[in-house]
Amino acid sequence: GWAEDESELVFEGNSVFTGYSKVTDTGTVTGIFHNKMSLSSLKEGDIGIVVLNNTPFYAESGGQASDKGFIYNNEFKAEVLEVVKIQKAIGHKVKVQKGQLNINEEVTAMISIVNRNNTARNHTATHLLHKALRHVIGDHVNQAGSSVTAYSLRFDFSHFESIPKDKLKQIEEIVNDKILHFLPVSTEEMSVKEASQKGATALFGEKYGDVVRVVSIDDYSKELCGGTHVNNIGQIGAFKILSEAGVAAGVRRIEAITGLNILKKLDDEEDTINQASEILKTNVSGLLHKIAFLNEDYKSAKKELEEFKLKEISSSKEEIIKEAKEFNGVKLITKSFTEYSINDLRTISDELKSDNKSLVIVFSTENEGKVTFMVSVTDDLFDKGYHAGNMIKQIAAAAGGGGGGKADMAQAGAKDSGKIKDAFKVAEGLMK
Which pTM was predicted? Predict the structure, then answer.
């Protein structure tokens, strides 16, 4: 997180970006900023923005994250954490590791090649993905934004429904098949007119200068793009889709990884599987069998518990009725349960109602921190103005909840299990 806000900086000079062909270059310091102030030097421990007249560092733009790396000379070294555009100049957000840097000094700027290559893999892969999407889903697919880092790629596109799993698999296979054809990637600069004549895909809403850069993957794909790419798509290695989801009306998003990031993902998943196997005391090959076995075990245990609960309920019906309070010839039952489902409560109340008349039942149950109330009224009380739906509104409100229902049965959720007794008091109040 940087305190610097480069969007407010004003800088007259410009920088030449040499990163398409170079990973190391020399440049002169033409500006130094810290906290929006222009400075003449930075010293050890300082953070700031250093502008160079000449740099191989790619500044974040077009969805591609910036390069990382170092700038240094004999007396000085700083880590470059992020790179931004400041009007026509390129600003390097640095943390000084040793020495002092002064304005007008010359430095060597060296990007992290591994970071650049990982980012390039992901960027070229988005062009392949774009093409594969159009092939599988249709020509209405247009890019609606992207994000490319050293770790992953995110591609937003216009489409109106989710893409089925088999289609995603097909898209992934097309991209990987292309990668294995080791097609060359070339870039050339030309006028916007010439680019459109050659059929290059432009991004809607992007501002292009008079001269544009066209990135071609053999004769498979042509796009206007200012980003950095691999020289041959074989360098991507492999492509794996992680997810596909909607992000806005008519816009979907695919997240994917390439190259060694797939290996890292595989390592993480192996760890998860190994941990799961340890917890379930089985080896990896027996994991699915063990899960299926435990699932069956759980189902039968749950069924036994349900049967046990119902037996318990039937045997405690008399107890429940005995505890009822009477108001003007109408009995009120209030009882709280834990780990009982709303269906269990209905079963109990139905059994009580089948044996008794003039009965108002108010139950609560707590499951995983959630409270549910149920009110049930025998049908001989409707004429006397008893209505479960109306009563539950006031009862649940006492525990910070709400709900409703019909005259004979109603349910409501609530937040505060500490207020169940208060809710029951409200029920008593409604009887008088």
Answer: 0.74
